[in-house]
Amino acid sequence: MSIRKKVPLWIIGAFVALTFAFKDPDEKYFEIAKNLEIFASLFKEINMFYVDEINPQELIQHGIESMLSNLDPYTNYIPEEQIEDYRVMTTGQYGGIGANIGTRTDPVTKKEKVVIMMPMEGFPAHKAGLLIGDEIIRIDDINIENKDSEEVSQLLKGQAGTTIKLTVRRVGVEKPLEFVIKREKITISNVPYYGLVTPEVGLIQLSDFTQNAGKEVRDALNKLKEQGAKNIILDLRGNPGGLLSEAINVSNIFIPKGKEVVSTKGKVKEWNKTYLALNNPDDTEIPLIVLTSSTSASAAEIVSGVIQDYDRGIIVGQNSFGKGLVQATRSLSHNSKLKVTVAKYYIPSGRCIQAIDYSHRNPDGSVGKIPDSLRRAFKTAGGRIVFDGGGVKPDVEVEKPNYAPITKSLLNKGFIFDYASYYRQKHPNLPAPRNFKLSDAVYADFVKWLSGKDYDYTTQVEKTIDELTQTAKAEKYYDDIKAQLEDLRRKVSHNKEQDLVKFKREIAELLEKEIISRYYLEKGSMEATFDDDPDIQTALALFKDPDRFRKILSK
């Protein structure tokens, strides 16, 4: 919504007047009109008399966002300047160079820098020779030192066919490098990876549900079967959802024509619909495992829920996010839009996977513990018991990896990321992802490289001792237990050098994946996880045990 400094309040006034003129006698409409008039007069008074100068557009936007925050997390106002980002989210297309960027903190200067996180294979950034870890310092003649990644992203985007000059700082290269790149129409793939994990097990990674997601999954499935796949893993981990139509298309690949996929129910009867699988399926027999995580949401939950409700496959991983709400986009004035929740969706068993309390979640965004008394039981096609109100619960749960404090520190401070870029400059070639294993010599070099760098951390046990010490002092018990506390502190005090040895395996796995990504990008990064990914390893074990596979689906 674009409101100028001198706000044309007659527009708001006219709207209020029209609302009054045509209002329904119903009291609800009277309340709407009355409160709009109050809002208009309040805004006018603030604009005229508030002691400091205000920005009307920002003030109105804060008011809108505050109002919507009382509804649900998915009803959002989209101002005109964010429309392009919203279009990218729904279509997966934009004009640009084809590279994901992000911010890293420079370990020396402590300043934020914008770096290339992942060039998209085959697109301009990749073809021009940009590498993961390249720090962007100028775009054309614009110094981006004080700009965040969102501002830089906007500068990188533009009409296909136009050129852009990037100046970057690269690890191991003394002088900045310049790249002149022609923007192209970028289409983000919904399936960033598909391939054979073993000669008989194919994996399809589905990361989004933008246009053509169903077609991309179908094509990947058929190609994997041609290559010999007799079992399929559909990886929906981290998939935030997207278009409802594509969730239906993906589900239809694995379930028969005419079967119900999802139904929607809302206040407006026209939104109440039942969606069926309209096409002939591609394969209703191939053994199927779907991987989910706490960030698998919306359309990803429809697909995993449909597979579970029809006992078509086994769900492996963590409980999904729990978003069972349907949004529609409504056009507003001044080229802005409202993404508004219009209905809840229900999967074939009749359950809604929307979390009962979507305002309170675990720190990682996952659904918190929901009492059984608040959840209702439903049955799958084969009679298995499933529940509503908290996402899709996996048939086989796999504990989420919990990294040691030193590993988290090395990740959060970017040292694993930075060393991989350093390694890439020292070693121009690398074996294929499945053939590369991080050697003891490389790990030792990493430890040497860390020397003198600040990656200190505090363990949870140390934090607990600190809290106990503060409590003891506050309650006057400290002098009585001081000796015991200090003895305990000495026993649990971490040693960084020892931790680098103790947690070598998990650090080395992450380092190996990061190094491989420097040479083989996203596809290589995926293949690097096959031998140590607990979800994938669980899936492989299930495929090797057909009796257990069938038993899970018949419980």
Based on the model shown, name its key terms.
555 residues, alpha+beta, Pdz3 Domain, 2-enoyl-CoA Hydratase, Chain A, domain 1, 5 domains, 6-stranded mixed β-sheet, 5-stranded antiparallel β-sheet, 18 helices, 21 strands, globular, disordered N terminus
Report the average pLDDT across residues. Answer: 89
What characterizes the major β-sheet?
A: 6 strands, mixed
Radius of gyration: 27 Å
Query: How widely separated are the two ends?
Result: 54 Å
CATH class of the largest domain: Alpha Beta
| Overall domain count | 5
Q: What sort of overall outline do the alpha carbons produce when their principal axes are compared?
A: globular
Helix content: 25-40%
Number of strands: 21
Strand order of the largest sheet: 10-11-12-15-16-21
Brief rundown of the structure:
The protein has 18 helices and 21 strands. By secondary structure, the protein is of the alpha+beta class. The protein folds into five domains: 9-70, no CATH class; 93-187, PDZ domain (Pdz3 Domain); 193-400, 2-enoyl-CoA Hydratase, Chain A, domain 1, CATH 3.90.226; 405-457 and 496-538, no CATH class; 460-492.
